[in-house]
Amino acid sequence: MKIGIETISMYVPGYGLDLRELAKARNVDYAKYHQGIGQEFMSVPSPDEDVITMGANAALQALEGVEREAIQTVIFATESGIDQSKAGAIYIHHLLDLPSNCRTVEMKQACCSSTSALHFALATVALKPEQKVLIVASDEARYGLGTAGEPTQGAGAVAMVISAHPKVMEVDVDVGYFTEDVMDFWRPNYLDEALVDGKYSIKVYLNALEQCWNHYQQATGAIFEDFDHFCYHLPFSRMGLKAHLHLARQEKSSLSARELQQQVEPSLHYNRINGNAYTASLYIGLLSLLDQPQLNLEGARVGFFSYGSGCMGAFFGGTVMAGYREGLNSEARIALLRDRRRLSYEEYEEFYTHALPENGHAYRTRRHRTGAFRLAGVENHQRIYERVPVQMAAHSDASTRAYAAAPA
Ligand code: HMG
After folding, report:
1. What positions carry a catalytic annotation?
2. In the CATH hierarchy, which fold is given to the domain comprising 4-169+328-396?
3. In this structure, which residue's CA is closest to atom 27 in ligand 1?
4. Which residue's CA is the closest to the ligand 1 atom numbered 58?
5. Is pLDDT of 167 > 60?
6. Amino acid 400: pLDDT
7. Residue of 240, 319, 244 whose CA lies nearest to 281
8. pTM exceeds cut of 0.85
9. Averaged confidence pLDDT in the chain
10. For the domain bounded by 173-324, which CATH number is listed?
11. How confident is the model at residue 394 (pLDDT cuts 50, 70, 90)?
C-alpha cells in the first residue's frame, strides 16, 4: 500500500516587505540580505491574519476534491499558537465545516512538529487505510525590529491531506532522528518574539543534519546518490545551500556547481521571496520544487531534512507520483505570491507592532486583504473569525459576513 501526500497547498498573507526597504531602514548593505542570507522579500501578516486564518485558507484549497467524511484527524502544527489549552485544529475544523466525528490536536516542537505530524499521519493511515488525515502547518516568524533575525522573518501555512491515495508523493516510513537539549532558539510564554543565538543555531542545525543522516543510513543503507533532489528546513534560503554542502562533505561527494543547482536550488525560490514560516517552511520548499515548470519530477526521489530548534531533526525520503501536477494548484500559488501588496517600511512597522488587547474587551480589526477567512476581532478573551465572501477575498475595504468560529 502506498501512503503519502494526496493534496498539498500553501497560503501566504496578502502583504510583504521588500528587503531593499528593510536594508535602507536598518542602514545595512542589501547584498548582506540578498547574497549573504539569500533573502529578497518577506510576507507580513496584516492585523486580521493569524495562524488560524492562514491555516484555514491553506486547508480550504487542500480539501478541494477530497471527500470530507474521510477526514477523521486534523493535526495543527505551529509554534505561534493562540491558546495554551485549546488546539488550533478545532478552529480550523469549524471554519472548514469538517465532520464532527473527528480527532483534533495541536503539536509543537519548533519547526519540526509538522514533520512529526506527517509521520503520525502515515501511521494512522497504515492502520486505517480508509481514513485521511489533514495536516495544517502555520506560523509567523518574529524576531523583533532591528534584530539580526529580522530579515529572515516571514509567515505562511501549508496544508496536506495524507491518505492511501497519494497523488503528489509517496512518503517513506524510514526516518533518521536526532534530539539534543540545546538553547539555540526558543520563545518563553511571556514573549511575542523568539530569542535566538543565531550563529550557534546554524552549528546545531548542521550537527543535527549529520546525526539524522547517520541514523537514516544505519536504518536504510541509503547513499547520497539515491536522491535526485533535497528539501531542507529553510530559516533562510542560504541555509539550504550550507546544509547541502555540509551533507555532501560528510559523504565525501564533491558537488559541482551544476549538481548543487539541480539538487537544491529549485526548493529555495519560495523561501527567498517569503521568508521563514517555521513549521511550514520545509513544505513550502517542497512546493517550490514541485511547481518548477521546467522539471518533470515523476518518479524523482526527494530527501527531506526537517529541523526544529531546541532541538530535534528528522531525515526521510519520498517519491514523486506520476501525474503529480494534478494534485497541485500551482497557478493559484504563483498568483498569491505575485499579488502580495508591497508595504512601505512605516506600514510594515505598523502591522508588526499591532497587538490584540489583552484585557478581553471587545475589539474589531480593520479589514485588510485576506483569503476566505479573517480574524475579525476579540470578545470576552475569544478570537472571532469571519468567512469573507469569495468576491471580496483579497480586496481591501469590503465588509464581511460574520462567521463565529469561537463561541460568542
Ligand atoms: P548576522 O550575524 O547579522 O549575519 O545574522 P552574518 O554577519 O553572519 O552574515 C550573514 C552572511 O552574510 C555571512 O555569510 C556574511 O559573510 C554575509 P556566511 O558566513 O554565512 O557565508 N555578508 C555579506 N554578503 C554579501 N555582502 C555583504 C555581506 N555582509 C555579510 N555586504 C543569522 C545571520 C542567520 C545568524 C541571523 O539572521 C539570525 O539570527 N537568524 C535567525 C536564526 C536562524 O535563522 N538560524 C538558522 C538555524 S536554526 C533554524 O533553522 C530553526 C528556526 O527556523 C526556528 C525553529 O526551529 O523554530 C530558526
Report:
1. 79, 111, 233
2. Peroxisomal Thiolase; Chain A, domain 1 (3.40.47)
3. 32
4. 235
5. yes
6. 34
7. 240
8. yes
9. 94
10. 3.40.47.10
11. low
